[in-house]
Write a structure and sequence with these properties.
Helix content is 24%, strand content 24%. It is of the alpha/beta class. It folds into three domains: 1-39; 71-278, Rossmann fold (3-Layer(aba) Sandwich); 282-460, Ribosomal Protein S5, domain 2. The strands form five sheets. It has a nine-stranded mixed β-sheet. Strands 17-18-16-15-19-22-23 form a seven-stranded mixed β-sheet. It is globular. It binds adenosine-5'-triphosphate, magnesium ion and zinc ion. Adenosine-5'-triphosphate (ATP) binds at residues 97, 99-105, 127, 139, 217, 269, 271. Keywords: ATP-binding, DNA damage, DNA repair, DNA-binding, Hydrolase, Metal-binding, Nucleotide-binding, Stress response, Zinc, Zinc-finger. A motif (RadA KNRFG motif) lies at residues 255-259. Residues 457-486 are annotated as: Disordered. GO terms for molecular function: ATP binding; ATP-dependent DNA damage sensor activity; damaged DNA binding; hydrolase activity; zinc ion binding.
């Protein structure tokens, strides 16, 4: 019997220390160390280590045959898109997200749909009683689905139960923080328990071929053992995001051993559960502030799918020594770069202004292609010049102020045309990529200076201000044609 080993384990990253210290050297967080009994969790002491000779095993070739379909469709196209085409046999998925974002709802729907199509699907809740899960299923209209349900937290009991009968195709564990295993002494929810429990469940999945989904709570301050330590152990990490006040929910692959990590799944939270949104552009543009200065529509690409989204900028004179720069949904260093280029090459003076920048609908944009749309929104806000309401923008801005082409020009234009936009402001050099009729008029810009001059001219020609009036927009409300059906 090994004597119990007390140690201080960082509840954020899992680093272990012999004595308490205020700051974790591993991740730099403060006050995250907690005393844990890590007996059996770390490698065994030398005396216990087996001295037997290694067992011989066969080495396989890469071309071995795999048993039946390696992917299992979840019945939800948006979920399949993010996982890369469905659940892989024996794979383990971690779904993380803020409290109340809809993790249990999403996974109840997925297990129910699988069970309805005749697969053995198991939902283990460590957080809610069976009655609560039933109540949710009833609300979602899924009470008739033959899901196998239990409220359990002991990993040994769960593995024993799941090993009986036919191998389940999908097992959901809601959540990994509530699970505990006999093999370690620490309290449930501690890093050591979470890691040991996840290990045991993952071993079961790999051995049996069942797809396993672990739900993990994310807390920003790292108080509860975050799923960070589990991230390395699983095959894919999906993050479920959304703004509390809004109905959109975005499922994003943060890591995926079997698929791409740039795809997003878009859902809408309704009383009847999560509704899949197969055309996110219509959703993101549906509540658009039509034509107010400081907004521009960006024709972006998320994974393989074009997504139009509104970028909003507010540029206002500052009262502070150092002006504020606040960004939501975009990279703040990217914003700084666009601001610097505007200032250096286009004579747009922004150093005396606060800049607030927001991507509508809670979407987060990573593409450099958003530069041009962001610049348009910024200049539009600064000059109080309304941009054409029927225009979309895309293009990368280089440090020299040139507008560079981006990938998938045709897909962006097609989406814009489909949603009723009449023109696209795009890089001059992208013209070559467009075969035939684009379906909308193209406004190619070679440099940022051209764009700034155009917008400034609109500002001077604004109705109500002296000068020439602009042409009335021929199609004033693209993107406003609310999605049909529901
Ligand atoms: N009757 C209802 N009508 C509409 N939406 C509801 C209703 N009941 C719950 N919801 C939505 O479902 C959300 C809770 O979903 P769910 O329990 O799946 O979240 P979760 O991520 O599993 O939360 P937790 O972290 O607490 O386990 C609520 O925040 C709310 O948005
Ligand atoms: Mg839940
Ligand atoms: Zn740490």
């Amino acid at each position: 019997m090994a004597k119990s080993a007390l140690s201080f384990v960082c509840q954020n990253c899992g680093a272990a220390y012999n004595r308490w210290q205020g700051k974790c050297d591993g991740c730099g967080e403060w006050n995250t160390l907690a005393e844990e009994d890590i007996t059996g969790a770390t490698t065994m002491p030398v005396s216990v280590r087996s001295r037997r000779k290694g067992r011989l095993f066969t080495l396989e070739t890469l071309t071995g045959k795999t048993q039946d379909a390696p992917r299992l469709s979840s019945g939800m196209a948006e979920l399949d898109r993010v996982t890369g085409g469905g659940f892989v046999r024996g794979s383990v998925l971690l779904v993380g997200g803020d409290p109340g974002i809809g993790k249990s709802t999403l996974l109840t729907q997925a297990t129910s749909l699988l069970a309805r199509s005749g697969h053995r699907a198991v939902y283990i809740s460590g957080e809610e009683a069976v009655a609560q899960v039933r109540l949710r299923a009833e609300r979602l209209g899924l009470a008739d689905a033959p899901v196998q349900l239990a409220a359990e937290t002991s990993v040994e009991d769960i593995v024993a139960t799941l090993s009986e009968g036919t191998v389940p195709r999908l097992v959901v564990i809601d959540s990994i923080q509530t699970m505990w295993t006999d093999t370690v002494e620490s309290a449930p929810g501690t890093v050591t328990q979470v890691r040991a429990s996840a290990q045991a469940l993952i071993r079961f999945a790999k051995k049996s071929g069942a797809a396993l989904i672990l739900v993990g709570h994310v807390t920003k301050d790292g108080q509860i053992a975050g799923p960070r330590v589990v991230e390395h152990m699983v095959d894919a990490v999906l993050s479920f995001e959304g703004e509390g006040s809004q109905q959109f929910r975005i499922l994003r692959a943060v890591k995926n051993r079997f698929g791409p990590t740039d795809e997003i799944g878009v859902f809408e939270m309704t009383g009847l559960g999560l509704r899949e949104v197969s055309n996110p552009s219509e959703l993101f543009l549906s509540e658009r502030d039509l034509g107010s200065p400081g907004t521009a529509v960006f024709a972006g690409i998320e994974g393989t799918r074009p997504v139009l989204v509104e970028l909003q900028a507010l540029v206002a004179p500052t009262s502070l020594g150092t002006p504020r720069r606040a960004v939501v949904g975009w990279d703040s260093s990217r914003l700084s770069m666009v601001l610097a280029v505007l200032e250096a090459h286009c004579g747009v003076k922004l150093s005396g202004h606060d800049v607030y920048f927001n991507v509508a609908g809670g979407l987060r944009i990573n593409e450099p292609a958003a530069d041009l749309a962001a610049a348009a929104a910024l200049v539009s806000s600064l000059t109080n010049a309304q941009l054409p309401t029927d225009a979309v923008y895309f293009g990368e801005i280089s440090l020299s102020g040139a507008v560079r082409p981006v990938a998938q020009t045709t897909a962006r234009l097609k989406e814009a045309a489909k949603l009723g936009f009449g023109r696209a402001v795009l890089p001059e050099s992208a013209r070559g990529d467009i075969g035939g009729d684009a379906g909308l008029s193209l406004d190619a810009v070679a440099g940022l200076t051209t764009l700034v001059a155009d917008i400034a001219a609109r500002g001077q020609a604004r109705p109500g201000s002296p000068g020439k009036r602009t042409d009335p927009e021929k199609n004033a409300t693209p993107g406003q044609n609310r999605r049909q059906g529901g």
